[in-house]
Amino acid sequence: MPSAPLLLARSIPSIARVSPTLAGDLAYRLFFTTSPRMPVRTPDAPTHADARRGSLRVRGAEITTYVWGTGPRTALLLHGWRGRTSPFAPLVRELVAERFRVVSFDAPAHGSSRGRRTDIRDWIDAAEQLHTTHGPFDLIVGHSFGALAALTIARAGVPTPAVVTIAGAASPDAFLAQFARDLDLDDRTAARLAERFRRRLDLDETTVSARYDAVAHPLPEGTRLLVVHDRDDRRMPDDSSLLLHAAHGARSRLLRTDGLGHARILSADPTLDAVVALATGGFDAVDGLGTTAGDETSTATRPPGVRVPG
């Protein structure tokens, strides 16, 4: 039997023919749905269990935090919407092996954290608190929605020399637009969804852009960017990532993969290699992995599953 969110999604286009406003309100409700919660996958369970756990209070919700390693450098990892920290397990192991301390959290209504509702402000609040207790961060990595949070955090409040976005987007508009395409929303319904989104954050179009759009308002001059995206990503096509890379010119490197999609790219060898290279050797190390610099449009990638020797 189809789940309630799936039934709601299927009904919205029909409702829109009668009332785009009601359909937009229902789409807004579905957009912020976080259930079902992602379980911990068996391959990730040992690393997940090995974390030193703590807690933070974020806008009234108690969330679970994680720390691995004791190295002199620190990385912050940010999971995506309807995700959790545990799929970062392969990257956690790589970074700890390179003497990084790795810090992360499950956002409210995600993973092991409490709460029933959340939005990007909770990612930002949690990151700022962790920056106070565990920072400064030498690296911030975000996957999917967590990539948008990573960009936002690095632009205001949590300075870092390096940001990695994986299967992400440069602004909320990209997530809203893809959601509208997934649900086949008409223009009026999509506009209502965007209006409700901005109202939730108590922002207008201009202030949403200033706060959350990393193409119109790039990262600080001293921050390097690595953009990782798969050409076959159906959940979040790479259009926004390509714009993000171009907006940062020589301060950005782009790694495009093939056949990894939206989720598998997070633990794939090309991604792990590129993130570790940036963390340990900067752009000089990343440039040897088939990335693209500056405003170039052509890219070269290694086949999935191929690691750099050593």
Automatic annotation (TrEMBL):
Coiled coil: none annotated. It comes from Microbacterium algeriense. Pfam families: Abhydrolase_6 (PF12697). Residues 76-268 form the AB hydrolase-1 domain. GO terms for molecular function: hydrolase activity. Keywords: Hydrolase. This is Alpha/beta hydrolase.
